[in-house]
Amino acid sequence: MVAGVAKQHVEIDPRVEKEAKRILRRLSEKGAFLAVAQDMAKAVVMRETTPGTQTRIAVVDRAVAHQFALQDWISCSSSGRVAKYEITQVGRATLKRILAEDQSERQSRYELAEAPSPFRAQHQEDAERLVMDDDSRKVRKIRTNLAESPLALLGRKRDRAGTPYLTPALIEAGERLREDFELAQMSPRITQNWEAFLTPSDKGQVPGGGPASGPTAARNRVSDALSAMGPGLSDIVFRVCCFLEGLEAAERRMGWSARSGKVVLRIALQRLADHYGLR
């Protein structure tokens, strides 16, 4: 993939469309870009988490990134040994349509109300996700801001002394868990029973898993990370970093008092950072 690649309409490979949901979503976040080095087989999505600090938030095959450029989903913003690509308006519209189609499919599966048209949804600024309730009998909607994840919002908060509430290592830990979660392709249908990860007999096994559930290595890394944090701590991290639930919403769901979730989340991320060897 090189700067200035000619744009042309090509038939979209199923693997490219599958990766589009994951990678375009990350590229929609503020300050995110795709870095492609001439001698590397993988392209990396980077984002500035704190001033002067960039964190890797996703990895994708170079060939897939090349197809993104051919579809005009990304465009080169800086060329050189390491070229930088940013999401285009076409890419944003494509992502919103993919998310809306995914929502329609899930709503049809669970016999919910008629979903909005995917082509109408592609012009909206945010999107809806469906998440299974804990009792596994209901499906609820949550609104997702494509440009800001809950962790990114918390990463910009500072105390009265001007010290960031979350260090770069804690943000990187949360992003690494989310990356593995998305690589594992763990849908709400599977993750509503995620607590089974924490029992030794089920370690590394995703309830309802199988070939369609996602790469085994990524699932195992998620399992190990949740086990390292333990029950309670892993719950808040999983909701905020993986389900992208806002902190206040997560507090209400778990029956916690206001502002208590922020404290528990930081403790949990510290344990997660230790697990990854980041602190």
Brief write-up:
The chain has 279 residues and is of the alpha+beta class. It has 11 helices and 7 strands.
Instruction: Name the poorly predicted regions.
Output: 110-125, 188-192, 194-214
Number of helical regions: 11
Helix content: 40-55%
Average pLDDT rating: 76
Radius of gyration: 19 Å
In terms of quaternary structure, the protein is single chain
Order of helices and strands: HEEEHEEHHEEHHHHHHH
Q: Could you give the distance between the termini?
A: 35 Å
Shape: globular
What share of the residues does DSSP label as strand, in percent?
15-25%
Beta strands, count: 7
State the major sheet.
5 strands, antiparallel
Helix vs. strand class: alpha+beta
Strand order of the largest sheet: 3-2-1-5-4
Structure characterization notes:
This protein is α+β, with helices and mostly antiparallel strands. Helices cover 44% and strands 18% of the residues. The strands form two sheets. The chain has a five-stranded antiparallel sheet with strand order 3-2-1-5-4. α9 (233-242) crosses α11 (260-276). The model is unreliable at 110-125, 188-192 and 194-214 (pLDDT under 50).
